[in-house]
């Protein structure tokens, strides 16, 4: 049955090849490489519940029943286009030039309810519960029971089943994706099809309440989501090739735009979302870590996996840094499968760029993106899908952002780490000695009408460089507390998460806390010639540069539980713990370590009214000033703890 179907497909693609060769002789904008080396098929693959998913397929021209290829898939909510078998992409057809030249059967699929696929789309489709079955299947006990219903794993399974029956495959399948497609790669792992051999979740959306795109520890990421949902959640009545935005908001200065917009609920006003976005409404209405968010956390389902996994992320990823590191950790803790981690000096998906040798004022001395694709990604899929070459990568291959060098470890975080604690102390000092004083504190007034900006300058959209930006603009503000060490007498290598313990009091009943860890360059540091650089590099002075290494926010009401928020007792010292995402950074000899603490990060994060009320329904008048005290004494030793490599 499978061979008959394959022969039918080959006849079809041979006809398409003749047409494409004739077309390729006419100059055009389409990629000649793709047309000469691949035959395109558009198919609607039927899922187990009858829903058809639109799938574009690129078969190598020399594929045959005696020359079979593995499949490399991407499942996406961002369009599998161009649509139509005569419409070829201008590049590709694989996710990279290297993989395209290596040749696979490339498959891209619109996920359920997106673009040209049928069905109803769900944000971060909840995974079905897969329990161990005692009912024999094919003579074996203890196999995973087929769950009732559908999820992204069942849709992937059904798609793979169709591909194996209808294409000249070698019966091995790989799956990869960046960002939201990274989630679909992760979501295919539970109950995976036996032919799925290699999966690479890259910057995968993983837990949107705790640390990915929507919220970080309960705090809503306003700037990104306001722009993203405008087009992503546009109207759709059945399959469409494109989406129209819900509204037009010409933003020139994001800080002023959102400050003028006022309370969060005003985003649903007539000129903006106007209650038309299902996902936006879900994000705002579900303001605790309730069943909505918990069911969309893929981590508990990443257990007893069989495919090999390569998890990839970037240290400068403003969207899904959390997802990459914690997807890897979840697989490590719950599965015995082959699992590798790669973390580079990349923004969101920058490892797919042709060149990533520099980011802002940082120069890495190498094309880190090409290194990754040549030495890691291409070899990963070649080995697992073609039995070609070797894949002897270390367990964790990570880039040290302080010395611009790759490091290898047998696990992540590294086992060699030793706890290092720095205490916030009087006179803006950061010391290794626990304070002995009593009733010592620093304080500031947090004013929602004048929130601390997340970046220095005027930007219409998110400034990606905020994750490495000079923090001198913030340290000069009276509503930002600064603590700093003396110049380091030796290199200090930090690897893994950073934990902050704050003892804070507020005159209100709620507060946000943003903790920033900063590498302060010596005053003698020479600046490269940025005279020909475009903004924001012009005028950058590296002498005394306060380089952001890592930062994180927590909405204070969630300090004890993300499920059950609690008000602050006004003016009472209260412990607040904040875990910052992982780092791999060497603080060089002569540099200083700095910590900044503040209560707004606008408009990256929405403003907290600083009252224990429903922020999604709060009025403009509900946003109040609050006096924040940060204690640093013997009874309340506010501190940060890191893992230092020996």
Structure description:
This protein has helices at 2-24, 32-37, 97-102, 152-166, 180-187, 222-232, 254-261, 278-285, 291-295, 321-334, 368-386, 472-475; strands at 38-46, 52-60, 69-76, 105-110, 169-178, 196-202, 215-216, 219-220, 308-314, 339-344, 358-359, 362-363, 396-400, 405-409, 417-425, 429-431, 441-446, 481-484, 492-506, 512-520, 546-555, 574-587, 592-598, 626-631, 639-645. It is an alpha+beta fold. The chain has three domains: 2-125 and 147-206 and 298-409, Alpha/Beta hydrolase fold, catalytic domain (Rossmann fold, 3-Layer(aba) Sandwich), CATH 3.40.50; 215-295; 417-645, Galactose-binding domain-like (Jelly Rolls, Sandwich). The strands form five sheets. Strands 1-2-4-3-5-6-9-10-13-14 form a ten-stranded mixed sheet, with helices on both faces. Strands 15, 16, 17, 19, 22, 24 and 25 form a seven-stranded antiparallel sheet that branches. The protein has a four-stranded antiparallel sheet with strand order 18-23-20-21, with no helix packed on it. It is globular and about 80 Å long. The termini are far apart. Residues 1-29 and 132-144 have low confidence and may be disordered. It holds the Pfam family PepX_C. GO terms for molecular function: dipeptidyl-peptidase activity. This is CocE/NonD family hydrolase. It comes from Spirosoma rhododendri.
Q: Could you give a quick summary of the protein structure above?
A:
With about 650 residues, the chain is an alpha+beta fold. The chain has helices at about 1-25, 30-35, 95-100, 150-165, 180-185, 220-230, 255-260, 280-285, 290-295, 320-335, 370-385, 470-475, and strands at about 40-45, 50-60, 70-75, 105-110, 170-180, 195-200, 215, 220, 310-315, 340-345, 360, 360-365, 395-400, 405-410, 415-425, 430, 440-445, 480-485, 490-505, 510-520, 545-555, 575-585, 590-600, 625-630, 640-645.
